[in-house]
Amino acid sequence: MSMVPEAYFDCLHIASELDAPLAGVTRIELQRIAFLSCLLSIYIAKPVSDWGYKFANTGSGIPFSSDLGNAVEFMLSSGSLKDEHGRLRITDKGRLMIQQLCGLHTIAPRITCVSAAAASLLALPSSVVTQGLEQEPTTAASQIRDGATILLDEPHLHILHQHFSVLAQVIPPGNTDLLSPSVLWLTYMAHEKTEQAELIADTSQGGSVVQPAEHAQSQLPPLPEGAS
């Protein structure tokens, strides 16, 4: 098992951020928060290749990183995390490892993204976070394919960049506050997910089908008034 420091840090930091308010984090929540963290990194104009590990859609609509999954299992076996009734909780050993990992030059730039993503789970209903991420363009496009698909890849990655370009007009990217754009984008995309479901339902009455990623691209602008 190869060590990916970024994945190790992310799983520990997410568990640490949510330990007090939510008594830890589930494995699925961890994967979603890490994926949202990567999205926020893209929002502040970091190349997706800089994130350190990739995500795939395994067919269930849940972004999954095997590197992150491996990191969780290692942290559990080493005592840096503990599993309490299906929730991952940070230990004192894990907190010490966070401090050690923060000394790596690749870690500091991602802390704000991971913290804001974890805070988004506290600021929004879990259903909004789930639906918003399912409507992310590369994820939505992967739903119509068979088998696992690498996310945040072309040809649909450019649609995500278009989303964030519009979002940046409302909330200019800044490293000091990523919670606001995260909450706004997730809320808007969850609304799009609901509209998409209604659109599909309408096809039973003779309407035409619009593919999820295509719908998301065409419907994003403008963002809601007063969003800022």
What are the salient characteristics of this protein?
228 residues, mainly alpha, three-stranded antiparallel beta sheet, two-stranded antiparallel ribbon
Notes on the protein architecture:
- This protein is mostly helical and 228 residues long.
- The protein has one domain.
- It is built from ten helices and five strands, in the order H-H-E-E-H-E-E-H-H-H-H-E-H-H-H.
- A three-stranded antiparallel beta sheet has the order 2-1-5. It has a two-stranded antiparallel ribbon with strand order 3-4.
- A hairpin with a 5-residue loop joins strand 1 and strand 2.
Give a brief description:
The chain has 228 residues and is mostly helical. It is 58% helix and 6% strand.
Helix content: 55-70%
The biggest beta sheet, please? Answer: 3 strands, antiparallel
Number of strands: 5
Order of adjacent strands in the largest pleated sheet = 2-1-5
Catalogue the unreliable spans. 212-228
Strand fraction equals: 5-15%
* Rg (C-alpha, Å): 18 Å
Helix/strand/pairing category: mainly alpha
Principal-axis shape equals: globular
Q: Tell me the distance between the termini.
A: 44 Å
Number of helical elements: 10
Total discrete domains: 1
What is the mean predicted local confidence, pLDDT?
88
Please write the string of helix (H) and strand (E) elements.
HHEEHEEHHHHEHHH
Topology summary:
Blueprint: H1 5-22, H2 27-43, E1 56-57, E2 63-64, H3 66-78, E3 81-84, E4 87-90, H4 92-101, H5 111-123, H6 126-134, H7 137-142, E5 149-150, H8 157-170, H9 179-202, H10 212-219
Antiparallel strand pairs: 1-2, 1-5, 3-4
Helix pairs in contact: 1-3, 1-4, 1-5, 2-5, 6-9, 9-10
